[in-house]
Fold:
Amino acid sequence: MHGNTSGLRPAQLKALSNLYRRRIEPGRIGSPELARNLAELSADVRREVGVLIDRRGRVISVSVADAKTTEFPDLRMGENRLSGFHLLHTHPRGGALSKGDLSTLFLRRLDAVSAIEVRGEGQPGLVHTAHLTPPGTVGEEEDWRILPPVPAFQIDEFDLGAQVQALEEEIARAAVGREAKKDHERAILVQIDQGEFDAEERLEELAELARTAGAEVVHRELVYRRNLKPGTLVGAGKLEELTSRAYHLDADLLIFGQELGPAQAREIEAATGLKIIDRTQLILDIFALHAQGVESRLQVELAQLRYMKPRLLGAGAQLSRIGGSAGSAAGGAIGTRGPGETKLELDRRRINDRLSFLERQLENVSARREERRKQRARNDVPVISIVGYTNAGKSTLLNTFTHAAEEPRRVLAENKLFATLRPTSRQGYLEGIGPVVLTDTVGFIRDLPKDLTRAFRSTLEEIGDADVLLHVVDAASPGADTRLDAVNRILEELGFRDMPTVIALNKADAAAPDTLEREVERTDGAGIPVSALQNVGLTELKDALADAVAGVQRAELARQEEARALSARYQ
Structure:
């Protein structure tokens, strides 16, 4: 027996317990006798009373609660099946099926939900029933079909069993057709707007991240919430709406633009029955998908393990700590003597061991990279680091600068976020300077997950060894302003904001003239419109880079002269 039974008399509790003995004909909603018993009890206790009935006609649960707060068995029904139970409950104040009744029907995937109106003296009135409809049903605006109400004495005339069988067959048939057409995970995106001016742009970027990860975006939802709900961020009502939309669009994935805590992800998954990931997990997945070099793979695995570690879960009381005792003499209670570690702790220990191993491997890689940097410094070859927002066209520009059209010199350049992750260096040539080394770095993104920032810090810090930065901006992007600022913030956090920088406004051929003009103004006239794909403006860009490198060289010569003069004075 479930629900709030406080204040009930022993006779009332006994009457509720007797409901377990009731049996109805399999495949029926109920029986006139059961309807009368429920109505009498509901009038007596002055609350809603409900029973959960399985397909064999057995009452398996009795609740003194409304439909939304009724406790249900923890079942894992198949994707193309219903739960195998229907709910028959009372409405002491009369009335048709409530919104809570219909939401419970949909979210619990019940065979049906029925409400019995209770009239004076505890007599059963009309019985209201609803069942689900298959996704994409023509002519149905809701997720359910509400049947005409019938008197309680006709409650056993509707063939629920045949209706459920036909419904499951239709759901399975539709699922087979959809599965044949589906070659990607279908995702619904949720971006929460807390008053940010760039909320829509963030949603667009989330869609691009999902596409890069291989998902098919079937719906985007921008949800305004000044104050976030602690457990579900968007509230139970919005989650029900999203679940309904996923049901109709055959979506199996819900992606949030905000980072979710472990408890939040679990609660949202329990409420929707969908696979839940957040923006951080999505970016980590993209990095894992595109990581090619040894260093990139090590850094991505390091970031994934750091993200996963606080999200490990035990299984409740059965995984509580087992005391590591050496028998009864050690004082452990009976049933608690064992190896001393739970499955959860073993997983954490394995992750810690793997983290230590990866960090040692990365230290070795960093040492080798340091040797290469020293070699370049001894050769006195100027280094230009190409930085910018992800998918701004850095790799395409590097290929164009170094005439690397063919493998193996060609750097991968795709219209995807984070297509290249490892720093790639190629030798180029600048008029008046001579040979230079151009290094393509990993693309930046706003609010870069902290686990990735830590994993890639050694790679990003290599930017500081450059003589000049080439900041590539996607001028054709609607959010070019905010992306420019995001890169500058990251450079400032790394301590590289004051380095000599040349700004290339890439994709100028695809940018609107007024947008391009605005970006030039935002950079105080320093931005140079170019198109790496169309070879437009590259001469001007190379001249600007040569001037910047020459300025650095002059400053270095002046510093050396000053040092020599100071040394001579002391001698």
